[in-house]
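Example 3.2
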Amino acid sequence: MTLFQQKCYRALKDKIPAGKVITYAGLAKLINHPNDYRAVGSAMNKNPFAPEVPCHRVVKSNGDLGYFSENIKIKIKRLQKEGVEVVNNKIVDFENITYL
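Structure, written as C-alpha coordinates:
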Protein backbone atom coordinates (compact mmCIF):
# COMPACT_ATOMS: atom_id res chain seq x y z
CA MET A 1 0.00 0.00 0.00
CA THR A 2 1.32 3.42 -0.91
CA LEU A 3 1.71 6.36 1.45
CA PHE A 4 -0.89 8.22 -0.64
CA GLN A 5 -3.42 5.41 -0.17
CA GLN A 6 -2.71 5.36 3.56
CA LYS A 7 -3.39 9.12 3.75
CA CYS A 8 -6.67 8.67 1.87
CA TYR A 9 -7.87 5.82 4.07
CA ARG A 10 -6.85 7.48 7.34
CA ALA A 11 -8.52 10.80 6.47
CA LEU A 12 -11.68 9.08 5.28
CA LYS A 13 -11.94 6.90 8.36
CA ASP A 14 -11.04 9.60 10.88
CA LYS A 15 -12.73 12.69 9.45
CA ILE A 16 -15.85 11.79 7.43
CA PRO A 17 -18.67 10.81 9.78
CA ALA A 18 -21.59 8.54 9.00
CA GLY A 19 -24.35 10.48 7.27
CA LYS A 20 -21.89 12.69 5.38
CA VAL A 21 -20.21 12.29 1.99
CA ILE A 22 -17.11 13.82 0.47
CA THR A 23 -16.15 14.23 -3.16
CA TYR A 24 -13.05 12.71 -4.70
CA ALA A 25 -11.70 16.26 -5.10
CA GLY A 26 -12.65 17.11 -1.51
CA LEU A 27 -10.74 14.14 -0.16
CA ALA A 28 -7.75 15.09 -2.31
CA LYS A 29 -7.81 18.58 -0.78
CA LEU A 30 -8.24 17.15 2.71
CA ILE A 31 -4.97 15.21 2.40
CA ASN A 32 -3.16 18.17 0.82
CA HIS A 33 -3.05 16.73 -2.69
CA PRO A 34 -5.65 19.00 -4.33
CA ASN A 35 -4.92 17.94 -7.91
CA ASP A 36 -4.90 14.20 -7.25
CA TYR A 37 -8.63 13.49 -7.22
CA ARG A 38 -8.24 10.73 -9.83
CA ALA A 39 -5.63 9.06 -7.64
CA VAL A 40 -8.15 9.27 -4.78
CA GLY A 41 -10.60 7.36 -6.98
CA SER A 42 -7.98 4.73 -7.65
CA ALA A 43 -7.22 4.43 -3.94
CA MET A 44 -10.93 4.01 -3.16
CA ASN A 45 -11.17 1.28 -5.78
CA LYS A 46 -8.33 -0.60 -4.07
CA ASN A 47 -9.54 -0.08 -0.49
CA PRO A 48 -8.87 -3.38 1.33
CA PHE A 49 -10.47 -2.14 4.55
CA ALA A 50 -14.08 -1.53 3.49
CA PRO A 51 -16.45 -0.92 5.15
CA GLU A 52 -14.27 0.07 8.15
CA VAL A 53 -12.68 2.64 5.85
CA PRO A 54 -15.92 3.92 4.36
CA CYS A 55 -15.11 4.45 0.69
CA HIS A 56 -18.87 4.35 0.05
CA ARG A 57 -18.92 7.94 1.40
CA VAL A 58 -16.81 9.23 -1.52
CA VAL A 59 -18.87 10.53 -4.44
CA LYS A 60 -18.57 12.66 -7.57
CA SER A 61 -18.62 16.45 -7.40
CA ASN A 62 -22.11 16.59 -8.90
CA GLY A 63 -23.63 14.27 -6.30
CA ASP A 64 -23.59 11.16 -8.48
CA LEU A 65 -22.45 8.06 -6.64
CA GLY A 66 -19.52 7.40 -8.91
CA TYR A 67 -18.04 3.95 -9.05
CA PHE A 68 -17.80 1.23 -6.47
CA SER A 69 -15.54 -1.80 -6.64
CA GLU A 70 -18.34 -3.91 -5.26
CA ASN A 71 -21.89 -3.84 -6.56
CA ILE A 72 -23.25 -0.25 -6.62
CA LYS A 73 -26.30 -1.53 -4.72
CA ILE A 74 -24.00 -2.19 -1.75
CA LYS A 75 -22.80 1.43 -1.84
CA ILE A 76 -26.41 2.64 -1.89
CA LYS A 77 -27.38 0.31 0.96
CA ARG A 78 -24.46 1.46 3.13
CA LEU A 79 -25.25 5.13 2.50
CA GLN A 80 -28.94 4.64 3.21
CA LYS A 81 -28.13 2.80 6.43
CA GLU A 82 -26.26 5.95 7.50
CA GLY A 83 -29.27 8.14 6.67
CA VAL A 84 -28.10 9.37 3.26
CA GLU A 85 -30.96 9.46 0.76
CA VAL A 86 -30.12 8.22 -2.74
CA VAL A 87 -32.43 8.51 -5.76
CA ASN A 88 -31.41 7.38 -9.26
CA ASN A 89 -27.80 6.86 -8.13
CA LYS A 90 -27.55 10.46 -6.95
CA ILE A 91 -27.28 11.91 -3.43
CA VAL A 92 -30.40 13.82 -2.37
CA ASP A 93 -29.68 17.12 -0.58
CA PHE A 94 -26.06 16.79 -1.68
CA GLU A 95 -25.00 20.31 -0.68
CA ASN A 96 -26.14 19.85 2.93
CA ILE A 97 -24.50 16.51 3.62
CA THR A 98 -21.19 17.08 1.90
CA TYR A 99 -18.15 17.31 4.15
CA LEU A 100 -16.07 20.34 3.09
